[in-house]
Amino acid sequence: AQWKFITLQDLKDAFKAQFASSEAPADATFLLTDPDFMRSHKGIGKWVVSGLQQDYLSAKYAFNQGQPYTYYVGMGQMNAWPDKYTREYGSYWIASIRNLGNNAYANGSVTQKVNVLKKGWYRVSCDGFYSPGAGSNLKASIFANVTGSSDGRSVVSNDLNVFGKEFNYTKEELTKTYKAVDVGTESPYIKAAKRFETGIYNNAILVYVPADGDELNIGIKVSGSDKELDWTAFDNFQLKYCGDNDMLLDEDQTSLDYLTKQALVPTNAYTLILKRTIKTGLWSSITLPVSLTAAQFKTAFGEQAKLARLKGQDTAIPSRIDFEKVDLSNNDATVIEPCKLYIMQTTRNANVEAGSYSKRLNDGSQVTVQAPYYTINNVVLPTVPSPIFRENAHQTTTVSGDIQFCGTQINQTTTIIPAHSYVLGAKDGKWYHTANALPVKGFRCWIATNVNAASPAKPLTFTIDGELQGSTTAIEGLHIEGTEAPAHGAVYNLQGQKVADDASQMGILPRGIYVVNHKKIMIK
What we know:
Blueprint: H1 8-13, E1 19-20, E2 26-27, E3 48-50, E4 56-57, E5 62-63, E6 71-74, H2 84-89, E7 94-98, E8 108-115, E9 120-131, E10 139-146, E11 155-159, E12 161-162, H3 171-175, H4 188-197, E13 202-209, E14 215-223, E15 231-241, E16 246-250, H5 257-260, E17 268-275, E18 283-286, E19 292-293, H6 294-301, E20 306-313, E21 320-325, E22 334-336, E23 342-345, E24 356-360, E25 366-370, E26 374-379, E27 388-390, E28 403-408, E29 412-417, E30 422-424, E31 431-434, E32 438-440, E33 444-449, E34 461-464, E35 478-481, E36 491-493, E37 498-500, E38 512-516, E39 519-523
């Protein structure tokens, strides 16, 4: 082995405006004090507590975990240390905000102020979750904001992951002092710390610091806590510098000129400003001219976000078209490839939810997008793509004929999507079978049918890994687009016979023309 001494200047020199495509962000965590809440660290006081109640034992740099103290750092043992329990579990200290029936002091924040070295984009991350008690209104978020700035890029936050209930806990377990005799029993804090080690509860946001030496405030905020078992746990803060260059992708642009005029270097990495309207919790189509790793995808769209690619006709049920999930477990793996077509489900709101962003182009003009928009660090544009593209057709044995996944990188204001295609609705995440040709905004996909045939297609249903996603109103639900169906009213066929009591039942009717409230409705 060979030792190498790294100076503070070496660390500072890693902070540069532009990173090559193969480079990771520069680690700036050394600017934080006690970022991982180490056992009895004297720097714990740099974390400023507001609105919470604590019993801090300064002589031991330790905290009392008992009731009514809502803020606690530790793993469940503090008195009479070091004993066998501490020796066994001393590396599992984490920070916690508990309710314990003390509603008056269960909501607040834990913040550390950092004077950053250089302006630019920073990635702030931590491990953490919030666990609402039954009926609770608890919300907890990771935040980062620049003192004195109102720019939406510089005032960001996002909800922590919700606890997946991998283990149970009680108020007594949260407040108990674990001793040597309890060494065979892991406290809830130790169990949480071990879950953090797996990486499943990582949370990350990107924040823009506009000037060298600005003060950046990072931390955790809890609100709405009103049940005694409410618990927010967090650990392992990291701060990484991503440079001061960015690129913009805008769903409303009608040509790729704006992308060409950004003069992006294909060997350089940029912070991506992505303006793509996506509704949290619903399935949406997605295509991008850049690649994303699993880590980048989860940073933007949530640790529990889902991604799937088109597989083809279901082998067991020919009328179903199957998507297959993309494995997101390997953070370094590429999960979105340039100009490929996917469907996805985000579990978090856009990173920037207020203000606007303007990108100056090399001809002196500028493009402005309004929040909300997503930010993703260290993204490379290998080449300016074609505006529209299509995957190879997938053969089916149904009357739909071949199906073809198509996508666009620009806002198509003309009716580019053919009639009888399938699209994911922006409002409800359901599949729509289009009655008419439609326009479509950028970074979206559709499924065209009968690409090698002339007859109109019959309805298909859709699955992910062979499983229908919920009831007939979920992802496989079939609706009519291109006609305005009345919300209510009895349904009649053209012979005047009543075939359904209400228009809400039209989804179970066969194809044909029906009359509702004296209006003809076609089901294709």
